[in-house]
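FYI - complex with iron/sulfur cluster, inputs then prediction.
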Amino acid sequence: MHEADLVANTVKTWLGNPISRSLLRWVSKRTKKGSKLESALKKYVGEAEKLSFQEKLAYFIVKLALDKGSESFGISKEQMIESLKNPVVRRGIANILEGIGYYGVQRPQTTAAPFLIVWNFTKQCNLRCRHCYENAGPKPASDELTTEEAKHAIDEFANAGVVALSFSGGEPLVRKDFFEVAKYAAEKEFYVSVASNGTLITEKVAQKMKDIGIQYIEISLDGFEKTHDEFRGMLGSWKRAVEGIRNCVKVELDTCVATTVTHYNLREIPKLLEFIEKDLHAKRFIMFNFIPVSKGKEIVDQDLTPKEREELLDFLYSKLIDNNCKLDAFCTAPQYAVTSYKFAFGPVVATHFTNKAAIEMLKGRTKSLTEFIGGCGAGRLYCGMEPNGDIELCVFIPIKIGNIREQSLVKIWRESPVLKQIRNRDLFKGCGECEYKYICGGCRARAYAYFDDLQGPDPSCSVNEKYWEKLHLYR
Ligand code: SF4
Ligand code: SF4
């Protein structure tokens, strides 16, 4: 049996059997004190707490699961303990184990609560971008969460076991209470990141972000000056965004440059990567997959063809594995997981959720992990939240599945019928018949944007080329 299948089978046998699942469900049960699972994980890393009898019992179960899990993934016990000392990692493992307890071992896995929530913090923005998925404008929406409601939402996310929070928008930095709310999230031990247009980031602002505990920033750059300013609807926005990137790099914030690729900027990408690596010295580049929603619908004809996208993904991946390139190149297109898989079992890429350290640690276990992580994470590992508290499968899928003012996140995550639909890949058209369905699954936002069908085909790859051609026949 191939090593990858062996790992998957071991996890399935150890954690997916009915006895382990009910034990995991029991240890994950949350009380006002938190879950027994979290106390057990703390004990595992030596942050000794006085444990009750039930917590001690939980500790033995969790220890067994972790020892077996680390053995299966080829990680030493010491490595496991070292990683679990980080509260973010601890929360992540708790979320996965609780997810296995509740949903069983799945291909791909659904976690007990979203691993990541992208929070469109406000509708207000100081730019007018052509591809804006939020249709942001000069004013905030009238029903945005107040500061107190925003903090309440963060408490709710912490209770549910969410691991990472990303503040997006609109432009999150225009909201006056941004620092107060982001600091509150960092204090609650979330992995906090920000997606910004960069124009408001002076050195002082960058330093302040770092000081309050923001761990990662993504700044958009759509190409070189002319292309960017045209795209962003404001002269001078490129210069200010570049300045913002330089300021973040200067204060040593983990900085990523994000580019939505369309025909407007496709040809600039190789040179842009060089500029980001050698002049801006950012650590990462992420290609945002273009999704024709909201304002983006108006430029749908600028979308890449399947062939162009595949060639670009190959190019980015060649950069990622090139030891002479200091820039880590990622992409939000779920097909990037297929690219990594096809590269003769090279390092795994988890599209939206990736980082180089994780890639290194997981090297050689590509198949089991790509099928566990599963490409598109919408409604399975991740969801979006609008400025008014509406919860969505993904910020690019404008379907409301609940509201944080009215329902608990866990209730929405477990009971929404739409979520059940998006998690069943066997029923997808096109993608459902593809050998990579558990690795990639297609971008559900693109399927919905093009075919008005969450279970429709994502016309991004050569497997689904016939759907792409059909779309263009009527244009
Ligand atoms: S057909 Fe769908 S699942 Fe297969 S590679 Fe293409 S987008 Fe991904
Ligand atoms: S639908 Fe999936 S792949 Fe597409 S943007 Fe959302 S999370 Fe990413």
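The chain has a mean pLDDT of 88. Residues 332, 334, 352, 376-378, 382, 394, 396, 443-445 surround iron/sulfur cluster (ligand 2) (CB under 6 Å).
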